Amino acid sequence: MASIPPPNARGRNMALTAAFLGWLFDGFEMGLFPLIGKPALQDLLAGTGDAAAITQGVDRWFTVIIATFLVGAASGGVFFGWLGDRIGRVRAMTFSIFTYAIFTGLCGFATEAWHVAILRFIASLGMGGEWALGVALVNELWTKGNRAWVAGAIGAAANIGYLLVAFLSLGMNNFLTSVQDIFASLGASQGLSDYLLHNQAWRFLMISGAFPAVLIFFIRLFVPESDKWEEEKKTGSTSHWSTPDLLGVLFGAVVAMLIIWAWSPMGVATPAATIITIVGFCAVVWGFLLPVRRYLQRSTAAGNMSEDMRRKVRSNLIIGATLAGIALLGTWGAAQQAPKWSTELAPNGYSHPMQYTQICTALGATVFALLTPLLADILNRRLTYLFCCITAMASSIFFFRFNTQIDTNFFISAFLMGGLTASFYGFFPLYLPELFPTAVRATGQGFCFNVGRIIAAIGGLQLANLIAVFGGDGASKLQASASAFTVLCSVYLVGMILIWFAPETKGKALQ
């Protein structure tokens, strides 16, 4: 059987560009909702009660929508990873980008809060899937010597999206004035202008979220399919994927939502929520693993995969998911909380502390995501992950324990903390593809990275409980919050131990 020649340099560059832009727009749209979510919900819940009832409704729906996003992204990572292994990286990537672009755009036409929750959930399926597909594609197209740079570029992309959101937030007034002038020059009616630009222009910004759909035409015209996947297709191994196995992913998504509900303000008492979480998380892992477990069984029975490889893949799925979960929980317990926490330190009258803090953390994340894969090629994968855990934990504890006011030291430490906690997102695009053979690479990566989102969601919901444990009341709230963040960031200690049980893959070619 003749081998399929790898794409030329132009094809590899096109694939990297598509993956980079897809993940950049992912980051932008993930950062966009925290900016415009509350104004949107205020509009959609207007007339449902008095001011206090509306405020309570906004807070509850905001929590629900964030939770559905995390569960949707986790489910989408597994689903679209499965699709990429079955029908090809490029075709699946076009579907994932279409999903998150179009359904984000449709949020701009919502008339009820639950419309946003459903549309945001569907959009997040595509956001979760795009990462696994883009990483698999570029790793399979690029040569070994270039893979560190590729991993760094993909790791930096989403952080550039977050950075763009922060700048948009700072310049919102000028942005709205410019858009209004454009509408007027085009002859748009005042009614249409008011509809689209009312309350921080949340409808216009949501509709603009459909823009990444134009990437689909670029991808279909210029991005080649992975030659490694084409070889797998020729051997017949891609036929071992089965659509009914996706019921496991659906089951896992429903159970994950049950866990989120249990810890939400609408949920149950802590003892019951704890039991639901322990049992439910095992069920989520079982459901998300079902498609790949069944594939491994069929592939082994057909002789396309050895029993040793089957056991290795199953072990790497659990190890990879745990390593990713530790990093994601640390991120949600540290860098993601920094902009909100900055408002507690800012003196009265200080303008835009959240935006300036996010700019610092996003800049740090972009720089360190680019550099970490290069470090992994100089050292090795285990030592690099250990280094990431040590520095992420140290920088997080320093940021939350030793900053008492907004000053130059605060922003320097925000840059370092944001960068060091995000260093993992340059590491994983390099390391996770090395854990799995081509036949299950997209599914394996999707499972590992996105089960980590479920872990992060569960851990993030413990913040309120931890703050209460440390006495978060009145003048002590600042110290209580810092202690709670410190406890969550201590999860990196687990990573420092676990990494020595993970495979060392430096110098080994992709399987």
- Taken from the alpha-carbon principal axes, the silhouette is globular
Over all CA atoms, what is the radius of gyration? 22 Å
Rounded to the nearest angstrom, the distance between the terminal CA atoms is 18 Å
Number of strands: 0
Mean pLDDT comes to: 83
> Helix coverage percent of residues?
over 70%
Helix/strand structural class: mainly alpha
| Oligomeric state, counting identical vs distinct chains | single chain
Into which percentage range does the β-strand content fall?
under 5%
Task: Identify low-pLDDT runs.
Answer: none
Please write the string of helix (H) and strand (E) elements: HHHHHHHHHHHHHHHHHHHHH
Biggest pleated sheet: none
In short:
The chain has 511 residues and is mainly alpha-helical.
Tell me about this structure.
This protein is an all-alpha fold and 511 residues long. The protein is 77% helix and 0% strand. The protein has helices at residues 9-44, 51-87, 89-106, 113-141, 147-170, 172-185, 190-208, 215-222, 227-235, 247-263, 270-301, 307-333, 338-345, 353-378, 381-402, 408-421, 424-431, 441-460, 463-469, 477-489, 492-498.
Outline the secondary-structure elements.
Layout (H helix, E strand, L loop, with lengths): L8 H36 L6 H37 L1 H18 L6 H29 L5 H24 L1 H14 L4 H19 L6 H8 L4 H9 L11 H17 L6 H32 L5 H27 L4 H8 L7 H26 L2 H22 L5 H14 L2 H8 L9 H20 L2 H7 L7 H13 L2 H7 L13
Helix pairs in contact: 1-2, 1-4, 1-5, 1-7, 1-8, 2-3, 2-4, 2-10, 2-18, 3-4, 3-7, 3-8, 4-5, 4-18, 5-14, 5-17, 6-7, 10-11, 11-18, 12-18, 12-20, 12-21, 13-14, 14-15, 14-16, 14-17, 15-16, 15-20, 15-21, 19-20
